[in-house]
Give the backbone structure.
Amino acid sequence: MTATADTHRLTTAKAMVDGITAEMDRDESVIYLGEDVGAYGGIFGSSTGLLDRFGATRVIDTPISETAFIGLGIGAAVEGMRPIVELMFVDFFGVCMDQIYNHMAKISYESGGNVKVPMVLTTAVGGGYSDGAQHSQCLWGTFAHLPGMKVVAPSNPYDAKGLMASAIRDDGPVVYMFHKGVMGLVWMAKNQRAIDEVPDEPYTVPIGQARVARTGSSVTVVTVSLSVHHALDVAEKLAGDGIDVEVLDLRSLVPLDRAAIVASVRKTGRLVVVDEDYLSYGLSGEVVASVTDVDPSLLRAPVARVAVPDVPIPYAHALEYAVLPRHDRIEAAIRAVAAA
Amino acid sequence: MTVPTAPPPAEAPDGGPEKIEGETRIDLYRTMVLARTFEEAMLREYHSDKRPGFDIGKGLVPGEMHLAAGQEPVAAGVCAHLSTGDAVTATHRPHHFAIAHGVDLRKMAAEIFGRETGLGRGRGGHMHLFDPATHFSCSGIIAEGYPPALGQAFAFQRKGTDRIAVAVTGEGAANQGAFHESLNLAALWKLPVVFIVEDNDWGISVPRAESTSVPSNAARAAAYDMPGERIEDNAVEAVYAAAGRAVARARAGDGPSLIEVHTLRLWGHFEGDAQAYRKDLEDVPGRDPIPTYEYTLREAGLLDDAAVQQIRASAAEKVEDAVTFAKESPEPDPAQALRYAFAEPDGGAA
């Protein structure tokens, strides 16, 4: 995790590719498979440049057959390869979930640890650009709910590279969920934190450790991925009003860093959870339970959850922004919890 | 195997006895007898402690139990061409393929009995057998064993070996998307895979005529530009011959093939299945492939009473040893129920 003197300014997408490149350089068993990951370079830039560097035998365009090629990744992993397999949008999991949750995630357990599945499933998540109900979801709560797969969701270039290295080196399956809004794509809304200095040298970010993205004393905001950026924007604004917000970037949903959540709430006594996934039965409730399971008296005020109310993601811009956890809803929640 | 011997069916032209060595023919018989002996023991053990009445969750072997009696010719004929370096992905009815591929009987029985010494330390059960030593696995989800086989074949190809993967499913699964996606991808990438369809006529209670638009799933192979062959009579030597061609093609790097075998489900879909829907039951015992093949080999002078007795005794000894091992093995510690959900550094190898 030690940064060297040599760094480059990279977008999150380029940092992710940087992480993949480093692992492909050091380990021939690492390959990248998926739809439009070759010449196109990944619809969201997740594999840009890999084909030129490693060739078509290691960076492989697949047919639109997610069940077949995700299953292929599983079988290859069982035989000792370390495939990275891309599901273009997480919303497409409906056509291939059996391979993911009944096979990729369960083989280790069903085999009593005798078979390992060292595989990374990368997938694009998130909305905010009017792509409608079938191309805008996060759904990480669904994957995190099902046992046997680690789930990570980086919010920034540094974590994108380091978590990718950890995911590839992990001996079990890791679902790596990259939000389109943090990738630094030139064809989406600009995001100042989607580009940053990233060490040239390989490094790892451990899976299962949250990061305090901003230290504060008044209210804890627990969040992940793009919502980290929104929370930081709001925190800067509220600092002028005397509300000192601590922002915890979970980085991993599985394992969930419950200790970091509790430690922060122990300090502030107030909790807001911001989650771009659906509200009910998901991450936000799990974060709250992480506190109340340990000690409900840590909370000096009712908790607020800012998530997608339980509706499909709308198309029209105004409707979509009404349901996503954007700045205004986050700010209102923090102010309410701080004042309670 | 209490059925009277029956006249031998006509062998397929390519599977004529003259083309198969006598020792190979005896091996095919031996494999089928071992698989059947195992299934008969499982049948006995499964039902021994579920009375009065029938409680599926009761007894030393609880849960669903799908036995493969009658389908032995498929496993024996295919696996005779494999080594333990080749992969096999089987179905929810996996025992005959596991046995024919050389999975350790003790570890397999122990898994079925839910013991710590089992293939999956009691975490898997009879539909989820994973044996790294023989690259064997199975899945309880219809057709979903096909895609992982592609990946195993892909890895073997990448390593520059001539190892192959055999993917097995039933005729009902040939109507699943995973089946068609897998055939396309395997053909597209010329993966060393042999696809096997065990057509036992029944998708639980639905006859194939009510589920499948084509009379032969082998015809579907043509849609993916690969050879397809259907063995109509559950004859082990015809399976052996067809599998030989398909395995050779895969090992040579010429890509996948599909073989459908019209086989026979002697018993229910699962134990406890009363099979009231099954009109063909009266006719079933006479179609048992093992007495039929035994008759063929006796006629050919390859087996006599002593040899048959020896093969049966040897099978019984191995199977009873495995059952005894399973019963005497420790049960998993409930305090360890959470282990192995995630990979452990030491792998927890048995």
Remarks:
- Residues 14-271+280-328 of chain B form a domain with the Rossmann fold fold (CATH 3.40.50.970).
- Chain B touches chain A through 49 residues (CB under 8 Å).
- The beta strands of chain B are 87-90, 130-131, 136-138, 165-170, 193-199, 202-203, 206-207, 228-231, 257-262.
